[in-house]
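Objective 1b: paired records.
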Amino acid sequence: MRRALVLVLLAVLGVSGCTAVVPGTAEPGKIEVKGPKGPVPAGLEAFYGQALVWRDCKALGRSAAAKASFGRRGTECAMVEVPLDYAEPGARAISLGVLRVRASGEHGRIGSLVINPGGPGQSGMVAAAMLSSRLSDSPLRQSFDLVGFDPRGVGISEPRITCLTSAEQEAVRQVDASTVELREAQAADFAGKCAERTGTRELANIGTRDVARDMDVLRSALGDDQLTYLGYSYGTRLGTAYAEAFPRNVRAMVLDGAVDPEASLVDGVVLQYKAFDAALDRYLDWCTDQCAVSTRDDLKQLVDDLRQDPVDVGGRRVLPEDVITAIVAALYSEDAWPVLESALDALSAGDATEVMGLSDTYQGRGQDGEYDGASTALTAIRCVDDPPVRDRARLAPVVDQVKGTFLAYAQPPLPSLDACAFWPVPNTSTPHKPNTPGLVTPVVISTTGDPATPYQAGVQLAEDLGGVLVSFQGNQHTAYLQGDPCVDQVGDDYLIQAKVPTTWLTC
């Protein structure tokens, strides 16, 4: 807590706009004290009123994507302190990475737009940097500082989630786990290593419940009385959790690619299997007259061939699961369909290089063979967020419901327990209908052909939050700020002018 107390002293003294040397570096940074703003929970004054020291981001990048995006012009970074455990705020503080790109307009700055790109496990810092370069001189960039943060356990933020080494992750991928016993042994080993290498107290406090509270600390430290938020995919779950915890602290909230807050994890898996299957049908329809691999039978033949004789790529075996991963990765957007076509056609000719490349990218494996930790963070956070399934009997109906889908053919689902069944700490959230008295009307965007967060989940979230639903007709995961003029106009008008659509609409 010592560092947090230093921040309080800076706030009391009214230090602002000064230059200081950032601890652990020789680099000067600009100190800003803009908090506390808005309601401050008792015992958290030190965190809500802390100073932020902004400096160049380049040295903070760990992954290839982070290193590339953190060097973009106009980015600046800081570390914000939050309690590891909000039940004991004075016991231990952890640091979260924050990236900001200042509003480009000379006049009319509204405040900060805090962004979460999803996952869980994806870096908000990388997302904010990349989004700022895409938006250029858009009205949104002129009106808001774009702010992304790495949630606890993600990217450069603490606590560092460590479960398997990159070599251990690679070894797991190279095993065709075709029995319940083998899969459960892998799951139990993963959970055990997470507990040993990360720590149970750390694992107990990395869930969405705690990240939502971190967002309110960040809001205050940034100097905003209320939060303006843009959440994609899992970011809609995080936004919903924030809206429940701090409904009156929200200025505006866009939730795109919704996670249904009332759906169980098991229900969500079934819906995703079916949604990806429908997306695969749309891809194959597109492929009919131009692809060498253009039917389900063609795909099944590729899978059967790999089962009997895995293809070698650089000394690594390409298994049916890699084909599934490649297909899933490419079905997130129509723009990736030509990439998938090329990869599958090459595989049919005996070259699995492109398929393995897609699979590696989706699983966070860099060209150096190191994994970026995003998939590990996803599992760890999910295991804290959702009630575990420890009864195999509950999984049997799931296996029955997904039969007939291509994903189930290529990687037959087994009634095996996952890592969460062996998780060493209890879950901190459960599926439920959110209670958000006093919340402003949020805008929920749902895409009709979204394979990852099926359309109906957006309908449910809009109803639960009393929001306005924008239905986008397309085949992709999420839609706002991705080039559709109708969706972008609705989102911009809402975030900038607080202009709420009068009715649900379709773009």
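Objective 1b, second protein:
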Amino acid sequence: MVVERHDLDGPDGVDALLEFTRRTWTAVSRWHVGDIAWTFGQFDGPAPGTRTSMWREDGRTLAAITAFGAERQDGATLTFHADQARPDAADTALSWAKTVYPEMSVWILETEHHLAAALARAGLRTDPRDDGPFFLAHRVTLDGTLPAVNSPGYTVRPLRGADEIPRRAGLHRAVWAPSSVTDARYRTMAARPPYRPEFDTVVEDPDGELVAYCLGWYDEVNRAGLLEPIGTLARHRRRGLARAAILATLHAFRAAGGDTAIVYARGDDGYPVPRTVYPTAGFTAFARTRVYR
């Protein structure tokens, strides 16, 4: 068979990327189906400002690279994933990327040893002096020790369905302003797997306003959930509402048969709050991202 490159260009490409990510996921992988759904599901294809290339053999995806900011003077930022059983596909993908993005920076999780080996073969290295932004991967086991959800005066519940999407998308925009998430884009994302409203947790104040949320993504094949994104309106922060939404989503994962859940938080001092929240919900950090150049 011949490994051929294809650019993600529509819903079929998103489906192929989801299948590839689900099939190759491990407990130490950076990519999860939730990352794919959040990044590309709003558009049912390429996200603005990105280019995603996939290397396939007989219709089966073996490696993929997403480039962000390819037009920047200092080079593109890439995320990279490959089938552990096919290092040749990883090498083919990186060989192509070096010609297209000569000033690229590639982010992986330090536990993805097969990707680190491929990057080393391609001549890329980490800089031990690099003190720029990085992410910490956290995980929690969904066993009987999960804390109860506690949010006095507030209601924590799943999204009730499509009718609430304008309020839900509006909440995201208010938390993360400026944001590109429109009502229409949220509807597109919510209309297809792997989105499920029972994992889209919202927190409602006594006046009925949505004030916090945690969006969960569940991979039923690997029995693993991902939290992405999470937020609270500024005037309702420091009341434990994000933690309550997180815990409610974890309980929903467990009810669906989940074994584990993961979340990524900035680990550097430039954005310190999230890394203090997740341990209170039972998460433990197990790895950080590394940048290869």
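The mean pLDDT is 95. The longest strand covers residues 210-219.
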